[in-house]
Amino acid sequence: MVLPRIFRAQQLRDLCAGSPATACNCPLKRCHGWDSLGGADWDEERLPAVATVRDVEVLEPTFEEFHPQGTRYDSPDAPVSLAHHPFNRCDVHHWLRCGQHVLRYTEYGGYYVDPRGRRLNPDLIVGD
Description:
- This protein is mainly β and about 130 residues long.
- About 5% of the residues lie in helices and about 20% in strands.
- It has one domain (about 10-125).
- The chain has one helix at about 10-15; strands at about 35, 50, 90-95, 100-110, 110-120.
- β3 and β4 form a beta hairpin.
């Protein structure tokens, strides 16, 4: 399945506004700053991919991060900048149970693969 591509920050804000999140006790409630996700935490049937930020034309997107206020990669209040790492390598998923949108990307290291998730807070999306 080919996912629709998010090109602009406003598209991502609009996607989130279309289905506001409700209270939920799902395992993703802790994912505010790129938390590792075990297989049991990620229910593919209830958390389908609905869009992608990745540009398939770019073989190696930048690893540069965006932290103008001194945040860090894993800071819950770090800005969401589509042109920067790791957002430029993400798919957007929609948790059917509560309506929450979650960004997901996979971090690769020497001998490990680490799927990570971050609940999407539309107030932190920067750009137009």
